[in-house]
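Extended Data, panel c. Modelled sequence:
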Amino acid sequence: MKLGLGTAALGRPQYINVRTESCDNSNLAEFRKHSFSVLEEAYNLGIRYFDTAPGYGLAEELVLEWLQTKNDNTIEIATKWGYTYTANFDANATVHEVKEHSLSKLKEQWDFSKQLLPYLKVYQIHSATLETGVLENKEVLEYLAYLKKEFNLKIGLTTTGTNQVEVIKKALNVLVDGTPVFDVFQVTYNFLDQSLQEVLDELVHQNKSIVIKEALANGRVFKNENYPNYNKMYTTLENLAKKHNVGVDAISLKYCEQTIPESIVLSGVSTTAQLKENLKLNSFTLSADEIETLNALKVAPDLYWTERKQLAWN
């Protein structure tokens, strides 16, 4: 099973994306119950890799609660540190999350996240950037190396933005006591932003694990009249979906799976119905010509990320 479940949409009622239907998440108890059932259904459908973070509202807490009902050492949990959720489940909050890549934040968030052991396998810097200086912070890097050794963890980072490739290249050269710190790279990748390809050979050569996030480009793969610039993409995707008798989501996920072999592709669903649609990626294979057609849809990273910044929390 190459599909993992990302829990951002399960842990906070608002998320940055293009919504295709309206929903009311104002009842937090109902929202929590619903999210718990999605975790359970994902497990029943064969998913064993679950990605979470303290920045995802109640997601990490929810995953911990759900794990209490399990006894299965094939489950792998990945979590992160560096973002604090601040919206307090208020849809009108002006600030939903705050980023801080300090040693004190790492220790504070690890103190909660360590409860996910022994299922916790991957511990990541949430949205590592050059600006925060986290990849040069000796204290932080040494502490991550300590956690890696002490708890047999894979240490990773997630990347976002136009300079993803630059961040990955820098991280590949980060050593503590002569040993590489980072094992896992969770990267934004889809047919619109294919920049990961620039550094793929090096990641494979160094035997690094790759996790794909935002395979559906935050919902931009779905037909939307606000994006006339993507009309060609919509037509292409609809034709492929029709041909393979699946949804546009499955086409997008399959593209990632086939073009980044051995990766884990994260599903970011908020319902079990969506998850079942996503899992249809296992029912077909894209031909070389179809992959080429999708490759041709790529846009410049600057355009991709400028557009993403304009997406609303909803």
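The first helix runs from residue 8 to 11. This feature is highlighted in the accompanying rendering.
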